[in-house]
Amino acid sequence: MAHKTFISYKYSEAQGLRDEILEALGDDATYYMGETSDSPDLTDTSTENIKKNLTDMMYGTSVTIVIISPNMTDSKWIDWEIKYCLKKISRKDRISQTNGVVGVIMEQNGTCDWIKNHLINCHGTPVIKFKDELLFPVIYKNRYNSNPPLKHCDSCNTWDLMNGSYITLVDEDEFKRYPTKFIDNAFDKSENESNYVISINVEEGTSV
């Protein structure tokens, strides 16, 4: 089943990946509610006008795709967009539900290792820990937050990849190969949000 989606991204460095994601969605791209290369330029309008246009796009969506790019924390909007999508927003007689969120890691020089620490757990298995300092707090505070914790091992603190975190992070190539898999997973978690400790009112991210 297709879900209405919104893509949150830093325009100056990730618009190309946004277009590739829309292409990967195929027919499901008709359910995409965010801006495209054909959308009007809002850069010269007021902050309130930009917010109104963004909220009109986001309201009614059920899954937010966040492009994780190297300079994303320089963005004035990504942090705010994620927080908006995690809230239940009332409009007239309707209340929106919390969006599912999936983070798509943008490649740099053919790899996504710029945001990863490669480690070995207590079983000798390779694992990945992400560099929180390159993410907004609203992203890393909503990782490893399943309740009860969905872990493969308490000793080495290895969490379930798909369901241990409300916001799963995935490399761009894998997401583009299986977009429905990750969008459906994000939506399913939003339908069971009581199984996660969701953080919204966390400190604003800063540039790194």
Automatic annotation (TrEMBL):
Record-annotated Thoeris protein ThsB TIR-like domain positions: 6-108
Protein name stated in the entry: Thoeris protein ThsB TIR-like domain-containing protein
InterPro entries per record: ThsB__TIR-like_domain (IPR015032), Toll_tir_struct_dom_sf (IPR035897)
Annotated Pfam families: ThsB_TIR (PF08937)
Superkingdom, taxonomy of origin: Bacteria
